[in-house]
Amino acid sequence: MINKIQIEGFKSIKKTSLDLKSINVLIGSNGVGKSNFISFFKLVNNIYEQRLENYSMRKGAESLLHFGSKNTYEIKSRIEFDNTNAYIFSLQPTSSNGLILAYENGAFNSEKGSEFTYMGTWFSKPISHNSIESKLKNTTGGVAKWVNSYLDSFKIYHFHDTSDSSPLRTPAILNDNVILKEDGGNLAAFLYFLKEKHNKHFKRIEHVIKSVAPYFERFQLQPDRLNEDRINLEWTEINHPDTLFNATHFSDGTLRFIALATLLMQPDMPEIIIIDEPELGLHPVAINTLAGLIKKASAKSQIIISTQSVNLVGNFEPENIITVDRMENQSVFNRLEKESLEDWLSDFTLGDLWLKNIIKGQPY
Fold first, then answer.
1. Cα 278 versus chain centre, distance
2. 293-297: long-range contacts (C-beta < 8 A, 24 or more apart)?
3. Distance between CA 360 and CA 325 in Å, rounded?
4. Which of 22, 112, 127, 248 is the right S-S partner for 298, CB 3.0 to 4.6 Å?
């Protein structure tokens, strides 16, 4: 689990140091920096996957640096895991409007380590210097051994696209089932894998889907009869067992909920699950069910989400909520404290307090 993250010079985030818990729900008005915080994990994942050059050239260093290179020289970060290991890096702009790794270091919390640079109880060891791409992924010993699995899971899940040609609605490659993709493009293949290899979890996912889509009976998943390398998200409706429906027949909200339930109920959970506005298009009942899934999943994975849903916020405790506000041209992050809200919470939910402007991160 990430226990602490420090970010400097990234988009609207001039400088922040934030302690993270098992559940982290970011709230705030449009444009305050919630999505920038979420997208920072995308940047880190591209560094780890050795795609920094392509990513930074597409995005442009000027758009990634806080108010551009005239105001910000570098993007820096320190990410601590379980208060034991850390990944530290600095990115600097190139003449071609990309970014280069000025340095990346691993660090561990120990009283020993003669070959390391002393930093309090933390010891840092260089991984690379002035490198176009990270060398962390190819480093198997030391700190890298412990942080690789975390950085590999820095994927931002967004199941927003439910158009007719979206990955969620189109057939999937049958064997594309190692992990659920960020856009849900292999949802049918991944569910088929669960059905064949983890049937208990598959049945639980079906049961939860029924609770928010009472017309849904069960999935009918099998390779396409005319192309066995492909699979469709086929299902039957209650009282109509002989009629097969597919993903095009699901409403947008139902299809998104299926992807979210699959992500949060899979047997081998990622170290960290990051979701941008998971409530989009969901019925209030489905949002309440989603909150329950998030809480249960947090026992195995660290959850980081951004939301605009008052209903979703109302399902959580103050210590789960991080408010985001824009102050003096930068994003400011604060975690709520239960003690300061106890009198209010006897009569209102957190969602109510958000609407009443009692807490920061105002929705208006």
1. 10
2. 293/208, 293/260, 293/261, 293/264, 293/265, 294/23, 294/264, 295/23, 296/264, 297/264, 297/265, 297/269, 297/273
3. 7
4. 22
Tokens of 286: 């489905």
3-class SS string, 180-249: CCCCCCCHHHHHHHHHHHCHHHHHHHHHHHHHHCCCEEEECCCECCCCCCEECCCEEECCEEEEEECHHH
Q: Measure the CA angle with vertex 137, ends 132 and 139; round to 5°.
A: 105
Task: Give residue-wise pLDDT tens across range 187-213.
Answer: 999 999 999 999 999 999 999 999 999
Q: What gap in Å lies between CA 9 and CA 91, rounded to an integer?
A: 10
The pTM is what?
A: 0.93
Q: Which residue is it, tokens 């994975």?
A: 301
If you search the block for the tokens 């192309």, which residue do you land on? 227
Q: Which helix (H) or strand (E) holds 173?
A: strand 172-173
55-65 pLDDT per residue, tens: 999 999 999 99
Q: How many CB atoms lie within 10 A of CB 36?
A: 19
Q: Strands 156-157, 272-276: parallel, antiparallel or unpaired by DSSP? A: parallel
Residues 81, 88: Cα–Cα separation, whole Å: 11
